[in-house]
Amino acid sequence: MSFRSAIEKRWYAKKPGVLSALAPLEFLYEGVSRIRRARLESKQTPLSVPVVVVGNITVGGTGKTPLIIALIKHLQKNGFHPGVVSRGYGRNSQYENSVHCVGSLSTPAEAGDEPILIFHQTSCPVAVADDRLDAAQRLIENFSCDVILSDDGLQHYRLPRDMEIAVIDGRRTFGNEHLLPVGPLREPVERLNEVDCIIVNGDVSKLTVGSLVKKSVQVAVKPVGLCDVKSSTRLPIDAISDAQDPIAISGIGNPDKFFSTLKGLSVKFETQVFDDHHNYVLDDITQFVGRDVIMTSKDAVKIQQLIKENPNNDKLTNTGLWYLDIQLDIPDAFLDAFVNSVRKLFQQKKTAIKK
Predict the structure, then answer these.
(1) What is the C-alpha separation between 148 and 132, in angstroms, rounded?
(2) Which of 59, 246, 289, 298 is the most buried (most CB within 10 A)?
(3) Which CATH number fits domain 3-219+330-354: 1.10.110.30, 3.40.50.300, 3.40.50.2020, 3.60.15.10?
(4) What is the sign, positive or negative, of the torsion defined by CA atoms of 282, 118, 87, 196?
(5) Cβ(154)–Cβ(53) under 8 Å?
(6) Distance between CA 103 and CA 111 in Å, rounded?
(7) What is the reported pTM?
(8) Which CATH architecture is the domain 221-327 placed in?
């Protein structure tokens, strides 16, 4: 077991165990976080369009990106022209002080994996910057976006927001309910009393706080296909049963979520876990030559770049590379209510500008 795995095991146990010794650091972290929030909120600049922040209060993956994609598509379907801002976690440091507008030729080094994934699946303008406020202003000015969605950024308090949506992993919820580094929380559970809606990715029954349950919406991951990373050819989901000696790889924040989804398809496979936002190199993949490698769509973004940079590598050619295409099964009532709320916010902004 790696050091990171051992830490996460204590984070998501009932009690922190040996991590309790770090309680003074947890106390310090909370104090610094409160000061930071107050300082950043004082620097907020109002924007002319509604801003919706989709984030979480825990470290690691909860399913924010599939939700963002679903919200974008529903907004587009209803006549909106949304834009997305993101920090672009994992991009090279040389790009961190600039705003990068994602395009068809953008690389993970320039933009990070999630922004590229969102752009390719929605054709939505996406701007990446350390300062999401700068990114949002660029989208409004250059792309005439009429609503901004922030991919993550619940704690990026410099960005003003008109709506907050928190995403929770229904299986892991809040772990031992301690703040970093004793637990997985970026902010106390009470922070969720401030958000407009809580999306529970999975089982909602573990969310026992009554006030939070009332504002919660349950969603579920639904595998819808298997896509060839090399050619983008899409196969029906039952084609996964024909995979040759499959190995599932994951470089996401919550790999167990991905592996559980695969197990639900009755697939027998080995696993290889990489760090979240792992920068794949050739040896990471060519070691599986002759086998079928199944990954998430987020991992596929970086593997596709690897293929572009090594077009004649025989080992890559002889390795099956597939990503599991998923959708979130979201209640229509929530999506309709979301669009109606955004429409009201847009009208309020428009009226305020006229005054």
Answers:
(1) 10
(2) 298
(3) 3.40.50.300
(4) negative
(5) yes
(6) 10
(7) 0.94
(8) 3-Layer(aba) Sandwich (3.40)
